[in-house]
Automatic annotation (TrEMBL), chains A, B:
This is Peptidase M16. The keyword Ribonucleoprotein does not apply. Residues 1-18 form the signal peptide. It holds the Pfam family Peptidase_M16_C. Residues 201-376 form the Peptidase M16 C-terminal domain. The keyword Nucleotidyltransferase does not apply. InterPro entries: Metalloenz_LuxS/M16, MPP/UQCRC_Complex, Peptidase_M16_C.
Amino acid sequence: MRRALALAAAGFLTMVHALTPTAPAKAQAPASQAGRVQRVVSPGGVEAWLVRQTHLPVLALSFAFRGGTSQDAAGREGTGNLMAAMLDEGAGDLDSDAFHGRLQDRAIEVSFAASRDLFSGSLRTLSEHRGEAAELLRLALTRPRFDAAPLERMRQSILASIRRASTNPGSIASDTFWSAAFPGHPYGRRGAGTLDSVAAITRDDLIALHGRILARNNLKVAVVGDITAEELGPLLDAVFGELPAKGGLVAVPDAVIAATGERRVVPLDVPQATISFGMPGLKREDPDFIPAFVLNHILGGGGFSSRLYQEVREKRGLAYSVSSGLAALDSAGLVTGGTSTRNDRAAESLAVITAELQRIGTEGPTSLELEQAKRYLIGSWALRFETSTQIASNLLRIQLDGLEPDYLDRRNGLIDAVTLDDARRVARRLFGAPRMLVVVVGKPEGL
Amino acid sequence: MRRALALAAAGFLTMVHALTPTAPAKAQAPASQAGRVQRVVSPGGVEAWLVRQTHLPVLALSFAFRGGTSQDAAGREGTGNLMAAMLDEGAGDLDSDAFHGRLQDRAIEVSFAASRDLFSGSLRTLSEHRGEAAELLRLALTRPRFDAAPLERMRQSILASIRRASTNPGSIASDTFWSAAFPGHPYGRRGAGTLDSVAAITRDDLIALHGRILARNNLKVAVVGDITAEELGPLLDAVFGELPAKGGLVAVPDAVIAATGERRVVPLDVPQATISFGMPGLKREDPDFIPAFVLNHILGGGGFSSRLYQEVREKRGLAYSVSSGLAALDSAGLVTGGTSTRNDRAAESLAVITAELQRIGTEGPTSLELEQAKRYLIGSWALRFETSTQIASNLLRIQLDGLEPDYLDRRNGLIDAVTLDDARRVARRLFGAPRMLVVVVGKPEGL
């Protein structure tokens, strides 16, 4: 039973999910998944991608507005995160308790989240309650109250989590890494904010950010469930139609990871050293993204079978887990990774990781590794299309990546088409002369 | 955003799930769900219920052996729990790392768990890897190694969780409640064991318990996925065929909750008082179970709309959450419930809860409450049939409850058929003269 590892793996999947090609397994998929996607444009002009499924009386709706925590004003970091916590804490005529009561009585689930580039959310409801669900989502998105009592409750909850994170080696390593990698850039800030910034956020800050981000020109929507295109149009207008046509996003400049070649040690009195590392990677639209995605699976994305895992854990027992991943953000692309190891083995662990990056950069993967990785990535994707919410989330991601529904049919072919030459070329590009930013938290010996 | 409440609600659902009628929503369900269930008996005599689904290349298998933590030997409490943690920590020729590597390389998920009455598990795999998945599950069930190194690792992990629980008010309240309710009975012991008992468990204890519980005469199996009955038979024999035909379960005597009418206060220096309460309830086979299930939804199972929630939280602000549930165990039936409240309001909270039990016992629910509860329970059930694993789990529960596949078609009708007279009669039976065992952990004033 490996809870810690399972959690780490889930975290990795989440990260890759946010930037990964999308489609069911080649062998088993129907001839065309894309053919099931309808592009619905409401009378009011709101577009959504719809997959109609009638085998369950459930409707799932996922949406995202471009502009996440990167839109927080300076000194008010954490505003987007606090707004996500507040949208279901009272809206329209309903206070926090009344709003939650209406949701719970009909088993309606709504959620909101702010990441670096997106403010996103989802809705899940029984089909029979979709009118009520749409009304509650409309209220949350267009008439949030930001009442004082729940605002203070959420603020205190977030402050408590920031305090907890301030003593957590993994959080310290992550915060230190991102602030060193992107100094002066929104990506360098912590999305949840700081104790000072969260304490300073006012109701007016929330209202201002809400007005800048939640607008129809920033919006993508995906819907899965027992609803026709004709029925969906009016529902889209009901939920999103009152939002302003245009928001006021601040441009986030493109950035490249800084401080590469540097190593920063944050002293902390703990038995394990936590290592975070990163280097320049690729954005999603880069033509090399798919080969890089396959290559990363071989290097450190593929769990037990990955090179980092085999070398660091299996052969040397240096760590319980080690992994790497692609972080393809809107304004920057990175390869990141990390591990935790005994303080007296931290230097050796980092040396092994560095050597593996250099080795794959020089030699590329083997043809056997490439075939196994492609087979795994093509086959396992189907596991992420089981629920309505998963399908909606994948459809949303494809839209955000600027792709068309046909990508559902093309994705596995693109992975299958990665040649050994492709993989070697991208390996040289990414790891041919790796210069990493490394952050170590703990009492590492010899670092 | 209500994480704490959502978690509480999820916990409640889990509990009810373990004892609840099962079927999709009436309005939307196909004419016969039961008609989709095939009873497959393998050449070797292993029976499983199968729902064939071909829209995803995924196979889910759920199984359970009667005999859970109640089978732990005296002084060795926690053996079943430790066994659940150990089955995937090495089996056959594969050590712990090799076993997990094989699972992860093919994205195969296995899990095991021990509850009071059951030792259960599940498997989820891509269809293309079902042969490998079956082989790994066979090894885990029939050839577990119980190697020394992972055994000590799991033991230490469990000991750490027991230590954490020993300072957690909710865990203390639960342990105190069950030990007072069932003194000298297996239900009175903590399933995870104690610091002493877990330290004392030997490899031979694991082997002995394994031999007593994991036998074919204790076994129920449910399978959902892209597999035919003809293909499933040999797979069942491959996985379960090597298990002994008969186990050696110790009889667990029927029991009735003791110490009713008593109140036990466990002093703990915390600002909140945690209250657990319970009284005699019903076993699953009781003819009044379905009316009691609906009644409990009205009393304290239905979240925001429930009487306890309205009276304790909404009207008086005494607690953030309060709920009740039916615990229908194999050898005892209970109504249980609980809340957390400020120490200086603990007495008032308990008085309000007691008054509500008496009120519903005397008056029963209103016809409006009954209709709303029935509508919610009938409609929301469909939300639990979305994934293959959920469907398999529900099919397994129906078997364990001694019911037939036609229950899938009958369940919502049974709920719909509960009359106001039924609800009042069962309310009188359960709450007409409520005598509760109450446990309070904290520094409650006036208790």
